[in-house]
Amino acid sequence: MIAYEFPLTAAGGVMRTVKFCKYLPELGWEPHVLTPKCSTVTTRDSSMLGELGQRTQVHRTRGLEYERLLARMKNASWGGRMGRALEWRLRGMLERAAVPDAKSYWAVPAILRGISIVRSRGVDLLYSTSWPFSDHLAGLMLHRWTRRPWIADFRDPWLQHYNYGPRSERHDRWNRRLEAQICQRASFVVSATALANKAMQQAHPELPPDKFITIRNGYDHADFNGDVQPDDDFSIVHCGTFYGSRNPAGFFAGVDRFLEHHPEAQSHLKITCIGTQLDGAFAAPTTKARCEFLPWMSHEQCLRRLRAARVLLMIQHTESKVQLTVPGKLYEYMASGVHILSLNTQPGENEGLLRDYGHATVLQDDSPQAVAASLEGLYERYGQGGLLPVTQTDFVKRFTRRAATEQLAALFDAALHPDRAGALLPATGRDQEVVPCAC
Predict the structure, then answer these.
(1) Among 21-25, 96-100, 173-177, 296-300, where is mean pLDDT lowest?
(2) Does residue 79 surpass a pLDDT of 60?
(3) pLDDT at 184
(4) Which CA distances in Å does 135 have to 10, 34, 38, 120, 432?
(5) Cβ atoms < 10 Å from Cβ of 379
(6) How far is it, in rounded angstroms, from Cα 338 to Cα 323?
(7) CA–CA dist 364, 432 (Å, integer)
(8) Beta carbons of 414 and 211 less than 8 angstroms apart
(9) With 70 as the cut, is the pLDDT of residue 291 above it?
(10) Residue 204 in this model has a pLDDT that exceeds 90
(11) Cα-flanking dihedrals φ and ψ of residue 300, to 5°?
(12) Number of helices followed by number of strands (H, E) in the chain
């Protein structure tokens, strides 16, 4: 399992791989995870290693992280202005050569270490997961050199992603050529949403449709054991980082408008943003509400705060292709049973999931008027003793990490035994790829 994002790194993509590793041994597969010793991601969380059993082995290799090298060169006391100029020129040269992304230099030691692991540990199958897409570059080369079947898992789309922006036409050509090779050589290509799966099929019509599989993210039922007492306050919690078009300005403007009409709510309303790095365009807002902006915390701590909230906030991106993605936290939001307030919700799988969840307020924009009106209704329910968590429905129970891992294990079996793929593939849940909603 080639995964640049893996504990001790704390990032959104870590959870999918960790939960696969947790449940794969129960399904007859022993994971060997190939990951860097120390990535350039500054946020760390060692607690997720406790999810891994003894049958999961983690192999850490040195990475050629040029960002760290350049930072040292820039700050070197001997360099001065010359060192900074050299760093600037070298950075441009390395970035131009980095395809598909800045982590492509990690792929080189990953490939060399991967060959050793495959040969010495009797590895039967390869699996790579992105982001970064360099993980698939390593998977492609290992597949060619070891002849092992290979699964390429796209946690988010690549060329179809809403923020895809190649640095040049040449980089665009290289990226398209590399994605085509990955899809052609992999036994199966996995996407995390049905719409992303469909977009990938449309981008590669020359390939058989049954090569493309949807395995959704989800929640781990073991993370939701035990009861959590709801907050006494009218508490609103947001988990995740604000970046790009995911901007909280409209929400906080709506909060202030709500408090202007309901000043008595000021003593009850409390807003918590967890894991939010507010800098630059996202400076801490000036608002009349009580707010706390907390740094990244362990997954267990985050879930406890999430489950105790009265409202969970989701601020969606606004780009046109955002409907191809579903934030992984949405499944844990739904598993908590807490009411969800979703802003900038475009038609697509996000909207369908929220409406089928049923315990959500779904807004298509983040205008202060709409936010304030929604908060008024939610505050009224809070005052009447409502707005309490609901019991998990059969719809929510479909999205467990255990069920997703069962799909992946069946896919591994089909890749390893292609002669029996027809009998094995129905277990991957193709009939469940499309969420039963008006997406």
Answers:
(1) 96-100
(2) no
(3) 94
(4) 17, 10, 16, 21, 28
(5) 20
(6) 23
(7) 26
(8) no
(9) yes
(10) yes
(11) -60, -45
(12) 15, 12
| Tokens read off for 391 | 């019991």
CA distances from 344 to 155, 236, 321, 369, 376 (A): 22, 17, 13, 13, 19
Please provide the distance, in angstroms rounded to a whole number, between the alpha carbons at the two ends of the chain. 32
The answer to which of 16-30, 172-186, 237-251, 352-366 has the lowest mean pLDDT is: 237-251
Q: What pLDDT sits at residue 85? A: 63
Give the SS3 label for residue 125. coil
Q: Do residues 129 and 13 lie in contact, with contact meaning Cβ atoms separated by under 8 Å?
A: yes
Q: How many CB atoms lie within 10 A of CB 320?
A: 9
The runs of H, that is alpha helices, within 54-193 are 66-75, 80-97, 104-121, 134-146, 169-185
Rounded to 10 degrees, what is the CA torsion of 256, 257, 258, 264? 70
Q: Are 158 and 179 in contact (CB under 8 A)?
A: yes
329 in Cβ contact with 350 (< 8 Å): no
Q: State the pairing for strand pair 269-274/234-239.
A: parallel
Query: Can you list the domains of the chain with their CATH numbers?
Result: 14-218+402-432 (3.40.50.2000), 221-394 (3.40.50.2000)
User: Which whole number is the average pLDDT over 145-173?
Assistant: 86
Residues with Cβ within 8 Å of 18's Cβ and at least 6 positions away in sequence, in order, are 6, 7, 48, 51, 52
pLDDT of residue 83: 57
Q: How far apart are CA 365 and CA 345, in angstroms?
A: 7
Whether 383 shows a pLDDT value over 90: the answer reads no
Q: What's the pLDDT at 70?
A: 59
pLDDT of 401-414, one tens digit each? Answer: 999 999 999 999 99
Contact 34, 113 (CB under 8 A): yes
Q: Which pTM does this prediction carry?
A: 0.85
The rounded Cα 350 to chain-centroid distance in angstroms is 14
* Alpha carbon distance 165, 250 (integer Å): 26
Query: How far apart, in whole angstroms, are the C-alpha atoms of residue 403 and residue 24?
Result: 11
Per-chain mean pLDDT for the chain:
83
Q: Which helix (H) or strand (E) covers residue 274, if one does?
A: strand 269-274
- Please name which of 235, 223, 198 lies closest in space to residue 213, comparing C-alpha atoms: 198
191-208: burial string, b at 16+ Cβ within 10 Å, e else: bbbbbbbbbbbebbeebe
